[in-house]
Write a structure and sequence with these properties.
Length: about 240
């Protein structure tokens, strides 16, 4: 019996503790690796969501921009229309209406206002008929409730360009350009800080994309053009430019 006990093999307490420690380290390592992989997949999934949402918005705006009478409704028919209001339709009206779908009045989101997690998008004609019911609107929402969508529209950006003689560069005088920027961001951005003379500084020096880069998740830019053949033929007055 004594001989059998002396020949018995096994692990000591110290060896068992060392084995468990090594096993725990291995488990922690693989856990960290799996966590990193999961985080990478999550980030990639969000990026794909932003890209797909932006693509859908661009496609819809492109379709809406071809609606007859849309540009005239947005104040494009003569750049300087006579108005008794202090607001100039050329500056305030856009061909696309972006509104807070959760708000009762569904009014367009102001330039200085925060973006929304869920937005509605339609054309200006639909937004102004039937007391602004936005009957033909489509809606876009991000899965993460902390993320927001903000859409900026700018008319005729080329008008700010000057020739070598410092005169306005009208380029194709019968073509209207609407530049659209779709911004996905988190937190809060003081958009009013970047507005000057009714225009917002997006990509310029000291603009939103430069100063708020830590909050911006993704952005997409697109341009839509409209050529007014009636004005080009001289059937509508406008001094040859918009």
């Amino acid at each position: 019996m004594s001989k059998i006990l002396k020949n018995e093999d096994g692990l000591t307490l110290i060896e068992m503790i060392a084995t468990l420690a090594i096993f725990s380290i291995v488990i922690l390592f693989f856990g960290a690796v799996i966590g990193s992989i999961g985080k990478a997949f999550s980030i990639q999934g969000e990026k794909i969501e932003f890209q797909q949402t932006a693509n859908d918005i661009v496609v819809q705006i492109n379709q809406l921009s071809k609606i007859e009478g849309l540009y005239e409704k947005a104040g494009y028919l003569g750049k300087f229309p006579a108005t008794t209001s202090s607001e100039n339709p050329w500056q305030t009206n856009q061909i696309i209406s972006v509104f807070d779908s959760e708000a009762a009045n569904q009014k367009p989101i102001a330039l200085s206002e925060q973006g929304k997690n869920k937005i509605g998008l339609t054309d200006i004609v639909d937004a102004t008929k039937d007391s602004g019911k936005n009957s033909n609107a489509r809606f876009y929402q991000l899965k993460n409730q902390d993320y927001k969508i903000k859409i900026f529209q700018q008319k005729n950006k080329n008008e700010s360009l000057k020739t070598q003689f410092r005169t306005p560069n009208y380029r194709d005088t019968f073509t209207i350009q609407t530049s659209v920027t779709i911004l996905f961001y988190k937190g809060s951005i003081d958009f009013g800080h970047y507005i000057k003379n009714g225009e917002i500084n997006l990509s310029g020096r000291g603009g939103i994309e430069e100063e708020e880069s830590t909050k911006i998740l993704y952005s997409r830019k697109a341009e839509f053009t409209y050529r007014d053949e009636l004005k080009a033929k001289g059937e509508i007055p406008g001094e040859g430019r918009w």
